[in-house]
Amino acid sequence: MSAEKTPNAGGGMPVIGYWAEKTISPDGKKIWEKLFHKSACLSCAWGTGGQKGGFVNEDGEILQRCAKSVEAIASELQPATYFEQNYTLPQLQELNSQAANNLGRLSHPLILRAGSSQYERISWDEIYQIAETAFRKPPQRLASYSSGRSSNEAAFLLQLMMRSLDSNNLADCSDLCHAASTVGLKQMFGSGTSMVSLESLKQADCVVLIGSNAPANHPRLLNELIQLRDRGGKVIIINPTVEVGLVKFASPAYPIKSMLAGGSDISSLYLQPIPGSDVALFVGIQKSLIAQGLIKQDFLKAHTEDWENIIKHAENTPWEEITSTCGISQTEIAIAARIIGTSSGVVFAWAMGVTQQENGVDNVFSIANTALLTGNAGKPGAGTMPIRGHSNVQGFGSMGVTIHLKKEIQQTLEKLLQRPLSRIPGYDTRALITAAEAGEVDTLICLGGNLYAANPDLNQAKRALGQIDTIFYVATKPNLGHFHGLAKQNTIILPVFTRFENPHKTTTESGNNFVRLNDVGKTHLENGDLISEVELIVEIAHRILGDNPVNWRKLQDTKYVRELIAKTIPGYEKIGKIDITGEEFTISGRVFNQPKFGTSTGKAKMFVTTLPKLDLPSKVDFGVAESTPGIVLILGTGRSYSQHNTVVYKPGDYYRGMPHRNCILMNREDAEKAGFSEHQQVTVQGDAGKLENVEIIFGDIRQGAAMMFYPEVNVIFTAKIDMRSGTPAYKRVPVFVY
Ligand SMILES: Nc1nc2c(c(=O)[nH]1)N[C@H]1C(S)=C(S)[C@@H](COP(=O)(O)OP(=O)(O)OC[C@H]3O[C@@H](n4cnc5c(=O)[nH]c(N)nc54)[C@H](O)[C@@H]3O)O[C@H]1N2
Ligand SMILES: Nc1nc2c(c(=O)[nH]1)N[C@H]1C(S)=C(S)[C@@H](COP(=O)(O)OP(=O)(O)OC[C@H]3O[C@@H](n4cnc5c(=O)[nH]c(N)nc54)[C@H](O)[C@@H]3O)O[C@H]1N2
Ligand code: SF4
Ligand SMILES: [Mo]
């Protein structure tokens, strides 16, 4: 059923080819220097790199850098851009994501003034003058957005500045990402992050990987799965699409046993549920575990609350309802349950297929319920593991860049600021867009990211940002947001150093709760006028807030920021000594190797998860006549192999057989039923717009489901929102294809 020319394993020679191409290129020497620089990898949150050298993972194993790291480094090593001299705004607005990124590195500050159609250079003095006026607006009308590439130190300072200004409007990319995991896990276990360390993962004999395309987005996780299969363990994949690298993966870390052998087996069992139906599948697994006598009653009694209701719910939910909702047979569910129930340590790991759903928090609950029913939490080799996105996105949450501030952090900050923090709830990312659209935001600072293109309904995002007077985009490279997400008065782009260029040390936190120390570095932008994120925030804060009660100027030295972090952030005590010891560490209170959790009772709380009602709109709902030939499908929107979020590095996706960005991956039977052939061009209509001339590619994707790439596709839909976490349902977008 798969596309004509897709490879039969993930990873493999194309990866080696890419390494060779980049590292032997004229920039090769610079890339190697950065690969060996003592700092955490820029790309994903798996946490490779740090003090033991660029190639070392958290367990001290070598050869753990992947091609995605090279991709990210190469992109930051581009020469300086002077796009303001060569392009007018209308020309910049014609560029696609890749072309915008390929303009080069931002190396001097720029401003686009109201009425002008040209970005121009601006001095730092004038920037600070504009900032002094812009940040003196009423606190409710100030907001920040951030993305997880910056350091813990910059993140801590950002929230300290915003809260000192009495604003809790700290939107973050995690609101579009793992918010459902954080909200769900906190309620269950009293801690919102993974409870599994890398060391603990190595003791598992089963991994259930749900809604993750790790071969592309967390490649070194595949090394763990290869090792697990080698020691006789099992991997269950739950994903509506067969991602080739989840079936077989050729890892360069194992040249002989994996590369030369044409790849190592990854999945032992591959289940393809209906998009958005994971709760039904997990309730089914629970029901089957009960029927097969594989529940750990003693564990439930001793370490959990409300387990009886979970069992009752599973028992009372009819099989018919379960299988019709998730589209997986009772037999297959029983096989999955048997594997989970008879393994000695199961890690449940998940990514965006789980969280970017209207019932994202319920998805997380249903997975964690399954872990608890089988005693797979609170012991080595088992537990719940959200696979985090950006390399320091989790650190942002830890540092208090969130609208759900921990009590302990609030209290310490109140002591520091010698007054109560504002109790007015802040805007998360979606709320920020809504407020901006209503004209309720005057000033926005974006610490990295691409607020415009990361959101659903790009026309709405553009309108909303256009209502804000002043936007500061703190960035390393130009992106679509800088050209489409324009403020009413002043749009300002501030160029900053990357993690391996900062003149001071910084730290970052991996998805496995491990804190990395990043050494000082140098930039290749010799004639640039860049600043460090820390210096920038401190300077703005100093000018607006003075030097009392916080001595902002002193915080230019990140050592003092780390001292503050040590006093303020639970579990981060060791960071206070890291400048002396150089010792990277696991944050305390997060990894549960004993069934004593972070809740007030020490027990895990379980929550009943109702099955979702997965209705499909009809053709007529898309404003077309019932007689129009075509098909309604559920679109999952996500990443191609060669992109990092909104930044496209290369157009196609080799592993899915999709040659360019304007493709839709479809099931052959669906296409034929609708009268389409492969490579035919169709229109894909959502509830907010349409894309035309989209090429059909046949792939191994479940019937009724389809897949397209963001950010381009974000123009056609509004997305439902998970009410409990604010996460948009990017993975269940109804579309009409005709
Ligand atoms: N190279 C690279 N690395 C990255 C990123 C990048 O863009 N490029 N982005 C980073 C970030 S911020 C993040 S959040 C992560 C994202 O990492 P992922 O979550 O792996 O990325 P997605 O492309 O969103 O794909 C998620 C998977 O969910 C599946 N899926 C869709 N719908 C469902 C469903 O209903 N149920 C289930 N079970 N599965 C479903 C899709 O088929 C797809 O395989 O990666 C991080 N790392
Ligand atoms: N349809 C759809 N939409 C989605 C998703 C999806 O799966 N489908 N995924 C969502 C998810 S999971 C996420 S996380 C968001 C991502 O949303 P964002 O995090 O907002 O977007 P990015 O594309 O990662 O941001 C890229 C920009 O960050 C800047 N940058 C890079 N490094 C640094 C640095 O060190 N410092 C600073 N200051 N700037 C830097 C560069 O200028 C670059 O252009 O998108 C979301 N949107
Ligand atoms: S797995 Fe993630 S952290 Fe490790 S090298 Fe690859 S992109 Fe970097
Ligand atoms: Mo993300």
From TrEMBL:
Pfam family, one: Molybdopterin
Positions of the Molybdopterin dinucleotide-binding domain: 633-734
Keywords assigned by UniProt, alphabetized: Iron, Iron-sulfur, Metal-binding
Listed Gene3D superfamilies: 2.40.40.20, 3.40.50.740, Dimethylsulfoxide Reductase, domain 2
GO cellular component: membrane
Transmembrane residue ranges: none
GO function terms (MF aspect): 4 iron, 4 sulfur cluster binding; formate dehydrogenase (NAD+) activity; molybdenum ion binding; molybdopterin cofactor binding
Highest taxon above the source species: Bacteria
Domain Molybdopterin oxidoreductase, chain residue ranges per copy: 105-501
InterPro entries registered for this protein in UniProt: Asp_de-COase-like_dom_sf (IPR009010), MoPterin_dinucl-bd_dom (IPR006657), Mopterin_OxRdtase (IPR006656), Mopterin_OxRdtse_a_bac (IPR010046), Prok_molybdopt-oxidoreductase (IPR050123)
The protein, known as: Oxidoreductase
Organism: Brunnivagina elsteri CCALA 953
